[in-house]
Amino acid sequence: MHAAATIEASCVDGGEPWASRQGPRRHQADAAAAYRHATGRLAVAVADGVGDSEAAGFAARLVADHAVRVAALEGRPDTALLAAHDLLTSTRDLVPGDAAAVVALAPGADDPRWRLAWVGDCRALAWDGRSLRTLTADHTVAAALRARGLHVHPRLAHVLTVSARTASPQEVGIAVVDDPGTLLLVSDGVHRSVAGPALAAALAEGGSDAERAERIVALAAAAGATDNATALVVTSPRGA
Q1: Are 58 and 94 in contact (CB under 8 A)?
Q2: Which residues form the PPM-type phosphatase domain (predicted)?
Q3: Which of these CATH numbers, 3.10.20.30, 3.60.40.10, 3.40.50.10900, 3.30.460.80, describes 9-228?
Q4: Among 61, 75, 135, 204, which has the minimal tally of Cβ within 10 Å of its Cβ?
Q5: DSSP result, 151-216
Q6: Mean pLDDT estimate for the chain
Q7: CA distances from 46 to 25, 30, 154, 232 (A)
């Protein structure tokens, strides 16, 4: 089987499983990461490199890996994305790529809520065992035009208005939500291929976080996704 058609699953640093599929693209430009600080606080991320190139994939991995460590250390996923922005800016000659990303900081002893930050069109979704809701808002030209009630060409859904490289502090999306039980992070290769009800059904089917992530990525492949597709699932004790 060609490598591009395989589903790759692994457990990232913090022990939270993810699954990723390269699909028909020439390069795997999606990345996922997790990091658990010595205090026990866990941060997870999914990043999607802009374009189909080695530079895009390297930028995505750099953003995801750096962001989870800063988020777990500082307790601020928005600060983590700005730190990733600074890293891309300072290494422009070595890292010319860019990425969209979503970072989530798990509840801690002093805060029972999830803290989220994002740039671009990676998404975070909450599953409480009954319903699935999207917690993020895409930073794309299409989303901006729809908000104004304008007709949108499908291609504009792929054009970012904010990214890890371009983001200013005011442009980073942020959200604070009560623990939903299960948090799902996905790249656009998933959410543009798999509808919400199908994602909810895949989560409701049960199994480990790894199994559910693999199931979701397989749905994207079955739907004919033409992009890289990545899903990361985190289930809290109350959602288990």
Answers
A1: no
A2: 26-236
A3: 3.60.40.10
A4: 204
A5: ---GGGGG-BSS-TTT--TTTSEEEEEE--SEEEEE-HHHHTTS-HHHHHHHHHT---HHHHHHHH
A6: 89
A7: 18, 7, 23, 7
Residue 12 pLDDT: 42
Q: Tell me which residue has tokens 């299409």.
A: 142
DSSP-derived secondary structure letter, 88: H
Q: What is the rounded distance in angstroms from the CA atom of residue 234 to the CA atom of residue 240?
A: 10
Q: State how far the Cα of 36 lies from the Cα of 13, in Å rounded to an integer.
A: 7
Cα–Cα dist 21/237, whole Å: 28
Residues written for the chain: 240
Residue 136 structure tokens: 């993020």
Distance of CA 71 to the CA centre of its chain: 14
Q: Give the contacts of 40 (CB within 8 A, at least 6 positions apart).
A: 108, 109
Mean pLDDT of 123-146: 90
Q: Over the stretch 151-175, which tens digit does the pLDDT of each residue have? A: 777 777 778 999 999 999 999 999 9
Domain ranges of the chain: 9-228
According to the model, what pLDDT value does residue 11 have? 43
CA distance 13 to 32: 10
State the angle between helix axes of 54-74 and 77-90 in degrees (0 to 180), rounded to the nearest 10: 140
Strands (E), the chain: 7-11, 17-21, 30-36, 42-49, 99-105, 113-119, 123-127, 132-134, 173-178, 182-186, 229-235
**8 A C-beta contact, residue 185 and residue 116:** no
